[in-house]
């Protein structure tokens, strides 16, 4: 057993959310309720799942916290930044995700979570007017320095031994990777100092600041923020874990399951049309084409990898795949994803599958925030710096370096996740994933 | 490499279908077209999939026939029994599954496939009047003897070195396992000779006859036919493989995928309502409550096993699961399965998924017949007698003996299938499946 | 203007609901809230619609209360019978249809509405155990006398000038019309006195009692209660209006709209499959085949009449129509109706329409109760006794005598409804409805 | 009886289709088959419906041809223009709407229908490369003259006594009404002569030419072509009927039915999301934003008029209505429209309706072409020149002059249609439509 290599989860763990909207407030209010025994952390692997360790006759099913040292929910402390001034209680009430009766019992605790002012550049989120922002005339480097200062202050005031930073804010406009600026740490830092607003997104200030303070950073939106070599280098240099991007919640999660099934059964696919309607702030932001572009790139890649189109050109060589997201205010946080899938079977005969997923965006995302924060911290304690590809299970567009293909199949991702936990717990990993 | 233990697939392989309706005629016509290069065997693992053998740097992806000796499609010969006299061409035209242009090029070959007279007992399929039957006054034992004679004659006339018998006929009424009759081979044979029509279904005559002739027997309907100890004993005694039951085609296949996804993601389930409309002979038969009962038992078990309700009572302890099948003639073979699934996430909040699967029953089933026939024959050549649990991938209600739980998760079933093929091919199997 | 023939709506109007479950409590709580200005009577024609009176240049759009004398919502007083003892507040809370915030402001008023003990015969609603019932050993006639006494007491205690009785309780088992018992008033009264429990349903005791007290009676369930000549005769004899049967709420309402559209466009129909899932008391009762039978008869008739199958045999002569209702507790009052409709167009080519209606049974029914009670009272004041076919707009299976066909087309029904109101208001009716 | 005012339908009627794609070829092939007795004109009012004439005891139900003089299908002759050279047989085969067996019996007749070269300007249909076009360097006026010449030649060669021109080609880009060019006939003719390509769409050349030759013109796409005062004036001047625009086939037809039902029942609406997937040429053209704009304007207006939002602001004052069309090649002509409708009932409680319409665009459109051509000709024979608002029943965006509101409610439109036919047949019209 080599678990002793992992630093134990002692002291308080601070979870700093970038964005204190529907997702973060549902996550925080829920966690507070759960630790009072007034709810269950449904959807959280770290809290509910049992993982097999050992094999054959030695096989045992254990909770994650029985395999590796994990903080209890009582050890968590919450903070946030936002570009609007609502505290966590106001935000939760405004989001209308949780019912009043699931918010009021922790009202006092929520009201104390007042966001720190956010880094704001309207060019990156055209649909929202920030009213609670850091000085927009400052350079990206200066803003980053302010975020570092925020982290240090939070850590000290709350008495945290460790901090994790997790992005749960809007999708920024699409920033294509620019080799000159994004491929080396030096060039990147130079650009920040030169306030190169075209190549340095606000989210990058948070990511760089978090790593500078030794805090793991998780990118929950499809922003390319940490999906560039400069950030990978900085993560290695600072010894901090990073993970991204884009929480895999509803429609894409289903996609990574269904396409795995089609390939397993050798059923062909010639069309996949996905449309979404949602009415929360996320929907509003994604209604702007430049922001949708970021999401679209994140959502489209999924199928081809799982289906192995190059191996099976007769089955998957010609798929018409289209993804649409529509801002639709009547629904608020109740997102609906409607998929039509055109498959074909024996002798090429066509069949259709329609999936209508009436989900709640924040309800699906909240347990992912909890798991990613806790597992990001675990990676830090295990000395695993840089890109955490084993967390791809939670992510729509898993990070991978230039030489590798990401794994999208939900079940293969789960095996990878379990293997990492097994290894950190001193157990043997399963050898193969397909 | 130990593949030499497997007898090579030399000579012709006869595939005898019990029932020459939509499923069988689609299977046969398709196979004939495919071997002319006029179609693809979409949905067939044995023809299209590539399976990893070896590990790490030694990993290779190979077709099944590259791993173990398999007959080519040109080696196949087809025959059938039915209780109606239509030949395979007439049956395919009447089924309206394949288009005329996918039947006519093999018209001549199909017309030569005239069914042998079937074993018929109207008490077992109330909705169909058999007009092409063996003498209904004969005892079950005598009927079985006639089926044996049919098999021998077919084998000789067609010059087959081996034969497989596969049930692709109607669902019979539900015959609960009777310990006195079904649990020992002796008692079972005695009952056949005594013409105990209440406990011996017509399908059992085929199964017993097949094994007597050394032919693997596959049960594609939910009939409990070979799901009893007497048959297991006879399979061991005769050294023949058997597999069943109920082809896993549309809705249940999706169920075994979606429920695996929910459990993987720790999302709770509190309701699952499945309704089907279909208008072919299968639908007509299942409209009779006693026949539906057989199907219902087969369809309902799936979820609980996959979700591990005992391990996760908070998530899966209280699921309301209902399955309905409706005879609906306007659709003919175009089956539609509509599922509504009530799931819950973080803090117990409810969400809904609706899946509408507009499928074609026979198109989904045809490649399963092909695979099961070829893999049943492979098992025979590999000396694997008795219950073939590794074929559960294809079956809605996989056979298992009294001491074991069946595996329903499609992806775990696939791993088991691949492992069996790896082993027969002289490769190492993957150790674990979850 | 001949409106003076109608007695003005002076004094209080008592509305007595048979059954104080989800539907009645939603109706009563809603009405109380609405008259406080805390909600809108959405779905109610009498409260919201404007009807054209006059023609051409004289056309005017007026609210119903501007055309005929109508009571204001402030004039209404509520009472109920039930076989369970919950008061209206408890019932509304238990139903979980309205949110707490839409019940609490009228909690005091609701608590005062305590049900009178109900007439109960378990043979008629097998799924419910009545615990708050009149003496079950009494004869039907004696029970009816007790109900009359209840009505008189309520009227006096509440100071009502008029009373309406409306059935909003369970569907009873199917009682086919028996010519000997149901076709003459004499035979019917004799059977009541002889306590003929097989032919006299509990609901008939309420209907007979209401008429005896001069109160209009509305049948909201599919019970054949007042759909028999004996009741028509008694209604004429007592000068009271009666109307039924079965509130037309969700799926059937849609059906009467869609089939009208198909016929208008001369699109053919060859199949209509309707399935429902619902989890309230109504669903529980309908899960019993004898009770479902009553509902099925009510639901199936709709299409043929609208489509005029005899006039258009090429289009509608061969429709496979199937209706299923499934008890599905996870949904409670949130009823879901899924319809698949197979239509055909030019040259007979098939197309499909699927309608998924996620509705709330009680939300759809509540305004129908309000309208039917008020319009039943209007009929009384207008001296219109007997069967009120002009109220068919609200009813799934409109009453009609032996010589007439019912009108099911929602838009034609609306014209008929408006015409009756126009006439009562002294305006000319439109002449034709198709 | 004043029917004698209508010129009888003597001699041959030429139907000239602009565009010989899926819609036109399905219409023509179908009509030829139907007149051979090999199919039914399902969806056609003129061929199948019976209309009531007379009232009360005098009421009779008659076919249209029994009320007014109508040509028989045998009197019809077909011609077409297109910008691709395929003849009607090739086009029908390529469209894959009708099965081979419904095309081959009229192959010879179809092959003789070779399109005349079309008026083409790629700026108006960016997605299609015309290869069979009139000289693109000619002015709009010269092109119009060529079309006139085409009509005269066709009429003479085919020996037609009358001709109707019907647009069944692509949606052009959106041309907003320009007061200076489009509001007077003089200005319009001047612009044509000056070859003002920005304001004069190719479709306008056909419309002007048709009227010049005394041929009724029908606009089946959403092009604003004849929806401008200049065209109304020219229609009056030439005494020719015109009608438009945009065939009301699938989703919009359903919308005009469902919204009528909601208003009738006083159910509120707060959101309506409509998405379409289709893969034929129409879909390809509409994938270009400028062309979609034309369609969107046509599709969005429908709801508000029917719901009378100004009369019922509480119910319909705030509807979020969005329409999306997606080019999706896997489906070809099999269009699918998915609607999600958010309605609300009693006390404002929300409910949802989802409608999935798997339709065939050309199958729905074909009978509309037949009816509009025959009824356009009827209008001509009845001396009804100018805008034919009574044909709105068939049109998504019915033409109306500046002082009037269009009627969208399908049932009201049908009453208007029937009234016009009644009047032309010498019967009294019904007075009111709501």
From TrEMBL, chains A, B, C, D:
This is Inositol-3-phosphate synthase. Gene3D superfamilies: Dihydrodipicolinate Reductase, domain 2 (3.30.360.10), NAD(P)-binding Rossmann-like Domain (3.40.50.720). The keyword Chaperone does not apply. It holds the Pfam family NAD_binding_5. GO terms for biological process: inositol biosynthetic process; phospholipid biosynthetic process. Residues 250-362 form the Myo-inositol-1-phosphate synthase GAPDH-like domain. GO terms for molecular function: inositol-3-phosphate synthase activity. Belongs to the myo-inositol 1-phosphate synthase family. The chain crosses the membrane at residues 13-34. Keywords: Membrane, Transmembrane, Transmembrane helix. It comes from the Bacteria.
């Amino acid at each position: 057993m080599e678990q002793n290599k992992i630093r134990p989860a002692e002291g308080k763990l601070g979870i700093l959310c970038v964005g204190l909207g529907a997702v973060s407030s549902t996550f925080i209010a829920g966690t507070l309720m759960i630790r009072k025994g007034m709810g269950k952390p449904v959807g959280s692997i770290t809290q509910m799942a049992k993982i097999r360790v050992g094999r054959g006759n030695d096989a045992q099913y254990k909770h994650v916290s029985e395999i590796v040292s994990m903080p209890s929910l009582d050890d968590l402390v919450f903070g946030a930044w936002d570009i609007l001034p609502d505290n966590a209680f106001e935000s939760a009430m405004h989001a209308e995700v949780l019912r009043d009766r699931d918010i009021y019992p922790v009202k006092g605790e929520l009201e104390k979570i007042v966001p720190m002012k956010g880094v704001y550049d309207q060019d990156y989120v055209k649909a929202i007017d920030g009213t609670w922002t850091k000085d927009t005339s400052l350079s990206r480097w200066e803003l980053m320095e302010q975020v570092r200062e925020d982290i240090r202050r939070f850590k000290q005031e709350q008495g945290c031994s460790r901090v994790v930073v997790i992005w749960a804010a809007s999708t920024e406009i699409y920033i294509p990777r620019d080799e000159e600026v994004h491929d080396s740490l030096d060039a990147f830092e130079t650009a920040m100092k030169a306030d190169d607003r075209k190549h340095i997104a606000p989210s990058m200030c948070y990511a760089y600041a978090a790593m500078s303070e030794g805090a793991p950073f998780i990118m929950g939106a499809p922003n390319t923020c940490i999906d560039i070599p400069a950030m990978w280098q900085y993560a290695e240099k600072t010894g901090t874990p990073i993970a991204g991007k884009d929480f895999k919640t509803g429609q894409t999660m289903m996609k990574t399951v269904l396409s795995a099934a089609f390939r397993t059964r050798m059923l062909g696919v010639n069309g996949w049309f996905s449309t979404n309607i949602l009415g929360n702030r996320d929907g509003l932001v994604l209604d702007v084409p430049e922001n949708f572009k970021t999401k679209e790139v994140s959502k489209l890649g999924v199928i081809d990898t799982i289906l192995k189109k190059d191996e099976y050109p007769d089955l998957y060589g010609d798929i018409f795949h289209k993804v649409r997201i529509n801002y639709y205010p009547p629904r608020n946080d109740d997102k609906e994803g409607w998929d039509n899938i055109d498959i074909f079977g024996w002798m090429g005969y066509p069949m259709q599958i329609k999936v209508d997923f009436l989900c709640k965006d924040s309800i699906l995302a909240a347990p992912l925030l909890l798991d990613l924060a806790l597992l990001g911290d675990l990676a830090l304690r295990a000395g695993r710096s840089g890109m955490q590809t084993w967390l791809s299970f939670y992510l729509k567009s898993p990070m991978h370096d230039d030489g590798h293909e990401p794994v999208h199949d939900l079940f293969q991702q789960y095996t990878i996740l379990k293997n990492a936990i097994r290894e950190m717990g001193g157990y043997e990993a399963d050898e193969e994933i397909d």
